[in-house]
Amino acid sequence: xxxxxxxxxxxxxxxxxxxxxxxxxxxxxxxxxxxxxxxxxxxxxxxxxxxxxxxxxxxxxxxxxxxxxxxxxxxxxxxxxxxxxxxxxxxxxxxxxxxxxxxxxxxxxxxxxxxxxxxxxxxxxxxxxxxxxxxxxxxxxxxxxxxxxxxxxxxxxxxxxxxxxxxxxxxxxxxxxxxxxxxxxxxxxxxxxxxxxxxxxxxxxxxxxxxxxxxxxxxxxxxxxxxxxxxxxxxxxxxxxxxxxxxxxxxxxxxxxxxxxxxxxxxxxxxxxxxxxxxxxxxxxxxxxxxxxxxxxxxxxxxxxxxxxxxxxxxxxxxxxxxxxxxxxxxxxxxxxxxxxxxxxxxxxxxxxxxxxxxxxxxxxxxxxxxxxxxxxxxxxxxxxxxxxxxxxxxxxxxxxxxxxxxxx
Length: 409
Known about the structure:
The longest helix has 51 residues, at 346-396. The chain has 409 residues and is mainly alpha-helical. The chain has helices spanning 3-11, 17-32, 41-47, 52-55, 57-72, 76-79, 82-102, 106-119, 123-133, 139-168, 170-191, 203-216, 218-246, 254-268, 271-281, 283-299, 309-339, 346-396, 400-404.
């Protein structure tokens, strides 16, 4: 069953840098689609004449749709030609972004947000495609580079979204993103070769095999749960930050809220280094270090009430660098762990890991908005610290051999 793909991989040992860049760009644009709305929440509520709590459902449904899409759609990469899957999803993602741009009411925007999340899983078809195309000796580096593109897309999306919304309106953000994604889909269709399927399971059995993989691999369960908890912390912060900065004592616009993505972008550049360090010293150690850095970075924000607004903004920026770095390092380490479990099931293993991640994102958005309304920014910070500490506990409870095991493709 794998003979065709093995032959193809041998024929493409010279994976060009242009193709790696295109895959990284594609992953970044697809992942960015999930986060464009976050710096816009303050202006969305005003423009659509709804409350901050109601408009908070926009990122919540987007994250939930992404988790659902990873669970139900990402495994298709093992069953069908990934190039075709990528092209179809790019077309659907462009349509969902366009619907978001044209939404006349909050209800329509919420439907568009759910659909957008479902097909933005395009990013998680591109990463396994990169792992398949790359020769074994370059796989870690190539996947790390593509993941850098994905992570930069996530972080810079907020900067771009905030700037464009402030100067051209929030609808322009989604319209421009739709055009970019549609162009991306056409380019990837032309640039990528066909991919031989690695599974012949019918769709129902393919999805059912996710549960089998969950039961079979304790390290998959541990990685998924730990990354899910880190995602609760990540999403609680980013889903509430724009609303918090929009009000007293900061009174900042969408550009300023989005600009905090620049602080976190520094962490994304560590993705290739994290992959190499995981290969050398063991991914479990790297994931524990990332979780600990995340917890410490969020805990620092407990001091915000004691600072002036000016100094508080500097602390938020510094904490953002720390927790984004910690979460991204952990994600690379956890992907290194799960990709090594079964090379023929990489799309499904990735689906399990990322489903947990984005369920955590959805929970973090919902809980963060509720806590901001009831307990203020201190409540959001407490949630983030507790979630990150939970991830640390999971990594510390790993068996000793799992904590010292090095990655081996």
